[in-house]
């Protein structure tokens, strides 16, 4: 009886493998911006599995209580990671999207400003939380998410993202603020 052999992807360096599946869209959402689109990573079952496994393996022994994801791509990653780690998930949403009593935080983006919210009962004092988003640009979104969680008494154990855009200064700012960071890959320049 012949056995079919399964062909496994040669991922070599996992960060490079995942980075190679991120699409760059020039001049979106405005001229001069090089948008790093993670949807090809999510669309391909192999890259999605490798991506989620990177996060799960990093945090499986971290003694976390919750995973918080930032609207909107952080929801995709955060919810899957929370499920895989058997933890609850907390959405940090854009203003006006949550139906219950909220706490809000305004922040600056690389091309404007925004406000995010969290339900006032989303976590409790002493909760250990992983904060996750798709990328770090100027760091404003992740810093705002961290401030919201800390205002509710939680401890943000680490900020995590797929992509770091170090030229925009966000990762350096977050690290300087004392937030430990984990990113899977980085894009330098254009």
UniProtKB/TrEMBL annotation:
Keywords, comma-separated and alphabetical: Glycosyltransferase, Transferase
EC number: 2.4.2.7
Organism superkingdom: Bacteria
Enzyme class, broadest EC rank: transferase
Descriptive protein name: Adenine phosphoribosyltransferase
Organism of provenance: Imbroritus primus
Lineage: Bacteria, Pseudomonadati, Pseudomonadota, Betaproteobacteria, Burkholderiales
